[in-house]
Amino acid sequence: MDIKHFYIESGQGDPIILLHGNGESSDYFKNQMDAFAEHYHVYAIDTRGHGKTPRGDKPFTIRQFSDDLLGFMDEHQIEKAHILGFSDGGNIAMIFAMQHPERVDRLILDGANLDPRGVKPAVQIPIEIGYRIAKRFAEKSDSAKANAEMLGLMVNDPNVAPEELAVIQSKTLVMAGTKDLIRREHTKLIAASIPEADLVFIEGDHFIAAKHPEEFNRVVLQFLDR
Fold this sequence. Notes:
7 strands, 7-stranded mixed β-sheet, globular, about 15% strand, Rossmann fold, 8 helices, 2 domains
């Protein structure tokens, strides 16, 4: 481990780990912490190079973030946890559940995607243009390099084929907003590719946990309680 994660924790009981999206931090889950902490030991962590967690020297990829999560769990002696990931955090959770099925209790994927084609073109095309521009200036400027790395996560990752999801053994809940930037058919494909996954759409855009926390928390806690 070349980094130490910044994280916030609350509550007691079975562990649940919350993974935020691209360019965000554990703050994204401020409306989940108290609600979940009534039932679980909640850890919300800042991913490598996000929030207060240092960038380190290792690759800036979803698969590296999955390795980092394993390191975090080992460091905190968490044998097995529920894992909830939003957006890129969902992609990390998905890869982690494929690589380390024995470490995941229940899996919740919110607004995840298998590849860039899962994102609506109106959102994805400007990201790809921004990535190309940032990459061109990355050698000359640290901020351009950091920007290229962040955008690169949404251009080059996670690259998972639907049939690969069949190895996921955890009981899984796949979620998205009704007006999500992830294409509805893509979210349905993820749910259909994971054995016996549940699928729920919540009224709203990509940021349902932040904007509609009561409904989001109710759906998640109901799923975990079953």
